[in-house]
Amino acid sequence: MSLFGSNNSAASIPSGGSGFTFGASQSTQQKQESQGTQGPSLFGQSSQQQNQQQQPNSNSSTMATSAFEKSTNLTSNTSSISPEGSSGKVLKDLLESASNLPKLDYNSLGTINLPLNELRNRTKLLSKNESEAGFTKAHYLLSGSGINAGDIEVELNNIRGLAPSSRQTKQLHELQAQQEQQQKPSDKPSQEDRLVAREAVQSPALTTGINNIENYLRAKKDENILNAIESSLVTASRDFDNFIAKNITIDWRVRKDHLKRSLGIPVKTKISPEELSKSFTWNQSQPGNYRILTPLKQKAGTSSSVRHFTREKFESHAKLIYSLNEARLKQLPFPIASSFEEVNKANQDLKSKQMADTWKVIANLTDEKFVKHNQEQAFYEDYQNKKDCISLKKRIVANSRSCLEKQFFDYMDEFYTKDDQKIPEYSVPSNINKVSHFISKVIGKKNGNEVSQQTLQVNGVPIWALIYYLMRSGLYNEAVQLTNQRRELFEKFDKNFPVYISAHVRNQCFGLPATLQERLSSDFNQTFQFLDEKSPNFDPYKYAVYKVIGKCDLAKKSLPAAVNLSIEEWLWFHLNLINEFNFDASSSLIYENYRLENLQKKVLAIGPEKLNASSNNPVYLKTLTMIGLYELAVKYAYENINECDAVHFATGLCYYGLLRVTSQPTDDLLTLNGSDEYEINLSRILGSYTRSFKISDPKVAVQYLVLICMAKGGKSTEETAKCHEALRELILITREFTLLLGELNEVTGEKSPGILEKQRSLIGLADLSSFQRTIVDVSASRCEEEGRVFDALLLHQLSQDYNVVVRLINQYVSETLSMSELDKPLLSEKIPSGGEGQSQSSENNFISRSKHIMGIYNNNSAILEKVSPEVKKVNDALLQIVDIRESFAARNWRDSLSALQKLPFFAALNSNDFVEVRNSAESLTSYHVALVRVIPSLLVMIMTSVAQLTHNIKSKRFGSFGGEKDELAYLRKIAKNCVVYAGLVQYRMPRETYSLLVNLESQL
C-alpha cells in the first residue's frame, strides 16, 4: 500500500538496487516484471508487481526523495534509468517535484557584506547557538504528497503572530535588571515603561542592530589578534633570517654535494667529515661569537709539557711586559730582546738556551743596545713588503752572518784562553794567532795529514785555511791585512786575490763589482774546472774561499767534505752564497742566482730533524729566525719549546713590526694569506696564554691583552676591535671592575681611575669618553642582556653615565614591583616567628642598592645635572611606591590606602564624578611605561586595603556606629571607582588581576 494512501503500489526496484528508480518508463518496468525480480520498497514493505503506469505524484515523491540520498544510492539508482526514456520528461518531473519544496522569504533578508573568513566563522557560531532543529527530511516526504511545508509555516505565523525568541526574551530581562539596579527604590519603572522596553527589545531592527554591533566588535577583535600574531611571526622570521645571515657561515657547495650523496646522486668531489663540519660555522667576526680568551687549537701529538711553566718564569716575564707597556705609554725605547735574553740566560735548561740565542739574533738585528730612540714598529713597513724590500733582507742576511761569525770567534777565543799548552809562536793573543792556534789544534787533528798536504803551506802555515777561518770568524780586516803583508807570495800563484778580497770587504761581503766578478770567475774556472775533491791538486780551503768571495758555480752549493762543517757553518756558507744584493754580478741564468727565499725553502725542506740532530745544540728555532721566517719560528716555539716563550717571542717581534698578523677569525695559530705568506694569530695566542691566570691575576692579563693593538703597525681597526672585545670579555669574566676600571667613592660618588683607564692610549682610546663608550658601556649592556643587574649598575656608574643609571634603576624597580608578591617586603626579610628580620644590605638587594645610589645622587648637584628631569620624576614616584609597598607588607592598611590615593594617577578614586575617574584612567597614556607597569599591583593593593578595612569595621563586637557607616560608604565608593578604573584599563593588565578586583569588590 502507499505511504499516504494516495498510491496503491510502490515503484519496483531492480535486483541489486538500493534506492528508487528515476523516472523509469512503463516498458522498462514491464521488462523488470517479466524477469520476476523484486526488491524491497523504501520503507521495508514487500513490492507487488504492477502493470499499470505509476501516477505522477508517486513519481515525484520518488524522485524528490532519491535526489537527497547519499552518493552511493545516487550512483546505483542512476544506473536504473532506461536509456530509452526521455530526458525532457525527467527534467520536467524534477521541476514539478521541486515546486512543492519549502521556500524561504528572501525579500525580508538584508545583504551580506562579510569576507569569507568572517562568513565561515559566523556560520559556525550560528550553528552552535541554534536551539531548534529546523527543517528535517520530513518536509521532503510532505512535498511528495503535494504539501508545501513552507507555505503552511507562513500561514501559521500570520495567524498567531511572531512570538519573541528566547534570545530576545533574555535581552529583555537583562535590560530590565540593569534599569532596576541603576534606579533608586523609589524610582521603580511604571508598567508603561516596561511595555516600551519590551517593545524595544522585541523590535527586529533593534535586535539586528545589537547583533551587528556585537558581531562587528567580535570580528574586529579576532582580526586584531590575528594581525598581531601575524606581525609577530613576520618580525620573528625576519629577525631569525637576519641573525642567521649575520652569525652563521654556510658553504652551500659542500652542503649541496652532501645532500646529493645522501640521496644516492653521484658526486664527483669527495667530502671528508672535517670539510663537512667546517661548512657550517659561526661567523666569528661578530662580537661575542669569537672568544679570544679560550685555548688555541693544538696540533695532534703536542706534548703537554710545553703548556707548563714555573711561577718564577711567569712573574719575570710579566714584569718585563709591564715595563714594556709603561715605556710605550711614555714613548720611550725599551730593549725587549735583550731583556728577555737575560731572563732566559738565568735558566740553565736547553730550551732556555735556545730562546736566549734566538733573542740575541733579534737584539743584534734591531741594534737595540745602541739605539736611543723609540723603535716600536720600526720595521713594519719594510717587513710587510719584504719581497721587494732589499734593505731589510740585506740587513737580515748581514746580521745572521755576523751572529754566526761572532759565535764562532767566541768559541775560538774560549778555546785559546783555556788552552795552557799553546805553541810559542801563538802565545801572543792576536786574532791571527788565535785562528792559527785553532787550526793547528782542532782542524789539524781532525783532518790529519791529507788535508795539510792538499792545502798550500807557507812556512808551515796553511795559508788558505787561515784566510777561510779568518773570514769564518768575521775577521775580514785581518784577512785583508794578511794578504797585503804576503802580497809577494800571492803574486806567485794568485796575484789577483788581494784585489778580490779587498773589494769583497769594501762591499760589505755582498759580492764584487762586475769586472772583478768576471775575472774571479775566470780564475776559479781555470783552477777548479777539471778538478774534483779526489784530485791530488785540489785545495779544499782555496775552493771554499773563492766560493764565498766570488759566489762562483752556484749550481754546486756545497763545500768540500774536507772542510769540517757544523750546522752553523753550513748556514753561514749559504748566507754568503746569496747574491741577490749584488746587481752588477747578477746573472740571467736561474741556477746562477741564489736568493734568501731559496735558502728559506732549503731550510724548510731539511726540517727540524736534521737541524736539531745534536741533542746538546738544537738550532732549528735559531735558524728560522736568522733567515727571516719569524712566523714559523713562533709556531715552532709554541709547539716544541714552551707556550710562555712563544707568546713573548711573538710579542717582541710584533713590537718591532717583524710579524705578520692574520685578520681571519680562526683558532689556528698559523695561517696563509692570499700571497702565500705566513701569518700569526696574535690575538688568540695572547688570549689563550692568559686563560690560566686571568681569574687569579687580571691585572697581569690586562697587560698582555693590551698588546693585541700592536699588531699591523698599531693602526689596524680589526686588531683594535679584537683587543677591545678581549678586554670586555676579561671584565665580564673576572668582575674585577674596581681594579680594571676604577673605584667609586660610596659617599661622594666620585671615581678614581683603574689600570685599564690609565693605559687607554695603548688601545687606541686616548679620549676618556670614547673609552667609556667602547669598553665600559658595551660591557654594561652585555650585563643587562645576561641579567647581571648589579654589575650593569656599577659599570654604568663607572662610565659616569648617571642618566642611564637612573633609567636602569627605574626599569628594574618597576619590574620588581610588578612581579613580586605583595605580601612580602622588598627591603627586609620576614623571620618564621612573624617578626621582621634585619634589612638586607645594598650588596644583595637591588631595591636597597637603588635607594642608596639615589641618596648619593640627591646629595650631589653635579650628578643630578646629568640626570634628565623626566627620568628623575619617574624614579621619585617608584621609590615612593616602594615605601608604600613596605607599609602594605606591614599590614598598615589605612596608611597604605592614604598614600596610594595621593599618587597622581589615583587622585580621582575618591571622587563622586565618573568623568573624573575616566579622565584619570585615560591619562595613563601620558605616564612612563615603568609607572604604567605597576598600576595592576597598585590597584590590587587598594582593593585589598579597602577589603581589610571594611572587614575590620564589620567584625567589631558592638557593630558599626554612624561615623563608621560613613566610612564604609566611603570605602565602597573607592572600591567602585577602583573597579571602574580597572575596567577602563583592563587591556593593560593581566586578566586574572581584573577578575581578582571584581571578586574583592563583590565581597564588600
From TrEMBL:
Belongs to the nucleoporin interacting component (NIC) family. Residues 1-12, 23-44 have a biased composition (Polar residues). Its main location: nucleus. This is Nuclear pore protein. GO terms for cellular component: nuclear pore. Residues 45-61, 71-82, 174-184 have a biased composition (Low complexity). Keywords: Nucleus. One of its GO terms (biological process) is poly(A)+ mRNA export from nucleus. InterPro entries: Nucleoporin_int_Nup93/Nic96.
